[in-house]
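Q: Sequence in, structure out?
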Amino acid sequence: MEEELFDAIHANAERHWWFRGRQKIALSLLDRFYGKRGAGARVLDLGCGVGNNLKALEPYGEVWGADPSEKALAYCRQRFTGRLDEVWLPDKLPYEEKTFDLVVMLDVLEHVEDDVGALQRVLRILKPGGTYLLTVPALRWLWSYHDVEHHHFRRYHRGDLRRKLTRLGFEVPHISYINFLLLPAMGMARMMLRPKTWSARDLQNGTGAGGRLLERIFRFERHMLWLGTLPIGGSLVAVARRPQNLELPPWRKGDPLPTRRESKHMLRAVQKAPEGEPPKVAT
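A: Exactly. Output:
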């Protein structure tokens, strides 16, 4: 992500309809599938950005934050006193296996070229039975200059994301599109945006009266998700778990990690496995 965007996000995220609505949906799903556990559990906000979700995650456990941007972490330190780490997925993740009860990644995976390798690392640092909540941008036809400026490698479809998660070993109790109600407006805006350069100043446009209306519409979807999944939307949200009985080949912090090519080879191998067979995982 462009460094100047962190300045704009820090200035506007707490009032911006998108960040506020996404947080409400994420917390609603955590209440449903994980539950508030307090200091007895350990939570990682992986790709925490400027830290506007760190405080909101505190009811779920002891919160750690991690991000590749030192500028973003500097903003986090202004209002968060917990542990913060500089990380790069998948190669630099300074945590032992089975460290966290909950890992949260809100719109992070699309920034990682080797997303399979990143998912492998998350699976390893989760405790058995641990929960993983992530959101990602959805639908390839929505690709616009917004994605380019934010350094996205891809947008996802539900089947793609579910397949990667399950074939690496995750259980996936819930996966759904979100930003369903606003999708027509989002699609129109992206079509108009494609030839234009996005500016960090545009974040200010989502913090006024119009933004508050959009937030109400967006966050209403958390109630719809209690009834089932949404058929389409501009983003995806997934709740995944590391199975209690899943044991991975030994790996220690500091050991060489699989390369992007090795991760892709592993994914192709498990995709060929017959349905019902246990997922194979790489060392």
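The mean pLDDT is 87.
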